[in-house]
Amino acid sequence: MTRSIPRGRTVGAALLAAALAATAVACSAESPSTEAGGTYTVWDPYPQFTEDSDWVGLLKDCGTSAGVTVERTGYDTTDLTNKALLAAQQGNSPDVLIIDNPVISTLAEAGVLTTTAETNLDVSTMEPNLLGAGQSEGKTYGVPIGANTLALYYNKDLLADAGVDVATVTDWPSLTAALVKVKAAGKKGITFSAIGTEEGSFQFLPWFWGAGAELTALDAPPAVAALTLWTDWLAAGHAPNSVINNTQTTSWQEFASGEYAFSENGTWQLANAAKLDFEYGIIPIPARAGGTAPAPTGGEFISIPVQPDTGRYATSQQLVTCLTSGDNLLTTDTTLSYIAPVAAVQEQQVAANAALKVWVDAVKAAKGRTGDDLGTRYPRISEPLWTAVQSALSGAQTPQEALSAAQRTAASATS
Amino acid sequence: MGIDVTRTPRSATVREAAPAVPTAPSARRRRPGGARWAAWAFLAPVVVYLIAFYAYPLYRNVELSLREYTVRSFVQGGAPFAGLDNYRAVLAAPTFPQALLNTLVFTVTSLVCQFAVGLLLALFFHRHFPLSRTLRALFLVPWLLPLIVSASTWSWLLNSEASVVNAGLALVGADPVNWLTSPRWSLVSVIIANIWIGIPFNLVVLYSGLQAIPRQLHEAAELDGAGGWQRFRWITWPLLRPVSAITLLLGLVYTLKVFDLIWIMTRGGPTDSSTTLATWSYRLGFGNLLPEFGSGAAVGNLLILLAVAAGGCYIGFEHRRRLS
């Protein structure tokens, strides 16, 4: 009696072992094979798209025309960087990786990505300012799949009530004057996201660059002017104190409440904007002295990670080309609600939807965060920058003190 | 971190008595050494589990902290051995003193308040009155909620614009407070939220500890004319001491490593004002586009050392108690 129990357990253990072995076999069956055809893996940061979405449909079609099966996995954006690094460490990178543009320089530095020259990808039609984020030391590590950037959404009803003509908002003084009028009408001025993460730097950069500041000199007078603009808005009550903790989503929720005149937000909110219960409009973010401020480019690059079997690149190249050329690019960017990285396709987009014009202009004026050959120095500058923004907005330091401290930190981290 | 049960006199006798069972002559003679193999075989899954999920990750973490990792060497291998450089850099960083102080303030305040409120509630519910079960169950709700839900709820409650708490302050004529966005209040805010989350745990454990105290003792004391306070001071408190100690120790370990709550509510900001060692370690390792695994791991290890030190204090305390 007592001995039958261990025997039963042995059987159980054997079954478990068999099950584990079966799983292992199943896993290895999924791993890429080198035969013609076979399965090609694609990782993207769009978990919102399910298997039956247009995006996945397009991926599968591209696979079919290249004669292979595409196996796609969608990851959360922030998760994907770590996943890609770990996969590279384990030697099982996906065949095609679609990843947020500022991460490209990090992955390139890690030696995870092939260059477009190695894999014969054509990037000649891509807009140079968008391609910049994927370039480092003269090499290009991927193809922009589409771009988004920041602009100012405004509440038409609210501005009309406050007597503000949005056409007069062309530079910082006229924007601040509009905010004063809005406040006098008993409403709130502007909301944005100044949270202590990359998102905060992303939102601050249009003002920073719009003042003429450079990421290599965080404590220069134009940079201080940009941070002073934000700090003064908070002090005067034009912007809520909650911006210090706002993500772009919570800042959008504030705007959606109908209490705010302006909101700094991106292309990706267009679908939500259609659901607002007031009329909205969009203007480019004004530079300090007028004109459109360069906003940082958002959006992903599509690249081919290094594989132990270089024979796979040819098919991967076909997949990437399929996704980024001609009509497919239009489909891709319409699906993702992005602005195309190619001028001709941008024109098609505007022809189809005139409301995208302001975004196309904003994207044309935008620049990559890791561009100007900053590469992996950008993350080491960005963190002190968002810390300085937080420090000044929360009143811990003056803008000049905060940015001087940031410059010292950035200089010692990048030297 | 365990409680060393083998040291107690009672289990020592159990250990001596235990071999008596399998020495039943038939079993021993039939398979010499077989029992030992069987014992190892039974032990193997646990050992494999412990090595795979505890020892190896811990070893990797120590190794990470002793090497100079860049993204390149993380992927390609060959990170140079850096000795204690990462630790030196972390200890010299301006964030370190602030993070350490915040961790201590956060942990001590949370523990003291959670324990005090938990004990008061446990004593209250110990009296058994109508609906006491229902009320006690309601107090467990914070424990059952996923942390992301409670942390987000707290951020809403404490939001600078149009929050419930500030509306309440306005009712009594006080100025609104920037709970999460001013360096003065951010740490206070996350501590308040953490206390709220920790109360149910203290309540449950202390309540069951109270149940274990024999009623007769209280009755005898009552007959001797002891008042409520005297009974608490001379009966409940001393008899609850072992339970209190383990509650505080577990609470300490939980509180030291609280990360999600702070990260969701303030991201450790503004400017490090609510950064603890746990959030700092995460920020170094994952909070930036360019991960610094070495420094992140070093901070994580310092945190483990703190927890181990606390565990050591507990074992010492238990040891002294048993000797006396």
UniProtKB/TrEMBL annotation, chain A:
InterPro entries: SBP. Gene3D superfamilies: Periplasmic binding protein-like II (3.40.190.10). Residues 1-28 form the signal peptide. The keyword Signal applies. Keywords: Signal, Transport. Pfam families: SBP_bac_8. Belongs to the bacterial solute-binding protein 1 family. This is ABC transporter substrate-binding protein. It comes from Micromonospora andamanensis. The lineage of its organism: Bacteria, Bacillati, Actinomycetota, Actinomycetes, Micromonosporales.
From TrEMBL, chain B:
Residues 100-314 form the ABC transmembrane type-1 domain. Its main location: membrane. InterPro entries: MetI-like, MetI-like_sf. Coiled coil: none annotated. PROSITE patterns: ABC_TM1. This is Sugar ABC transporter permease. It is found in: Cell membrane.
